[in-house]
Specification:
Blueprint lengths: L4 E3 L5 E3 L3 E2 L5 H13 L4 E3 L7 H11 L7 E6 L6 H15 L4 E6 L9 H13 L3 E7 L3 H11 L5 E5 L7 H10 L2 E5 L11 H10 L3 H11 L3 E2 L6 H8 L8 H8 L17
Parallel strand pairs: 3-4, 4-5, 5-6, 6-7, 7-8, 8-9, 9-10
Antiparallel strand pairs: 1-2
Helix pairs in contact: 1-2, 2-3, 3-4, 4-5, 7-8
The structure holds nicotinamide-adenine-dinucleotide (NAD).
Amino acid sequence: SPQPRIALADGQQIPQVGLGVWQTPNDAAVDVVRTALQHGYRHVDTAAVYGNEEGVGAGLRAAGLPRAEVFVTTKVWSEDQGFDRALRAIDASLQRLQLDAVDLCLIHWPAPHRGLFVDTWKALVRAREEGRVRSIGVSNFEVEHLDRIVGETGVLPVLNQVELHPRFQQRRLREAHAERGIRTESWSPLGQGQLLSDPAIVRVAAIHRRTPAQVIIRWHVESGLIVIPKSVTPSRIRENLDVFGFTLDAEDLAAMAALDDPGGRIGPDPMRAR
Ligand code: NAD
């Protein structure tokens, strides 16, 4: 497939633009995933807690692509943290997806008050050794959580999937990732749709005769981020991958840089969440 892939520290590669399926109902996920794959997507981001792994798996099979061409990510939910529970949760995810292995498995949230993310990380390391997951990473980790798991196991997460969009650009965390060789993946890359009517974004989109969604996804791509926009609408699914025929110039990038806001977080604070 034509879109770029990003090299991970463990030698694997991930397609830079993927399809997010949070809040996509299980029975809708079949058609959504099949449609996305037919339109050129090669990367799907799900999670046990999304309740749609069966539908995602059915969509993968319906598209009929060779397994090696599609990159599938799932995540271990906070209630399944701990060594044994996490291993069982990964098995259950594979069972629902009807896959022998996922390409990437993440710890969904550090949930630091549970005190289990190091044991959970050890389970992901084990699952990788057993061939049930090809790459392992984390989500919503702060620098102290990253350094804790690497310090205790010597195993680097290939990426950290965090809330990231023009209104919440995570510059400090991205720098810490770069220093450590960890890739950054953007969740809610469109700010859950809230950024699509931002006047600065709308202006840049008009200049390029592109949509606001395309301008924002292009910004993630040019920023070297892995990006997983969500839509269930076929025309939008297609639009969101069609971001390789234009580039943002210095003026566009300056306008978008100025949108960063320390209070721009939409989702939960990882230090306190669940
Ligand atoms: P998003 O930023 O991708 O926005 C999705 C919404 O934007 C859609 O529901 C739709 O309303 C709108 N939209 C999308 N494309 C559009 C288009 N072309 N034109 C007009 N409107 C459009 O929001 P998200 O779903 O929160 O994030 C994307 C993915 O990130 C999720 O599906 C999930 O896979 C992942 N995620 C992970 C975590 C985590 O904790 N790891 C948390 C949230 C989301």
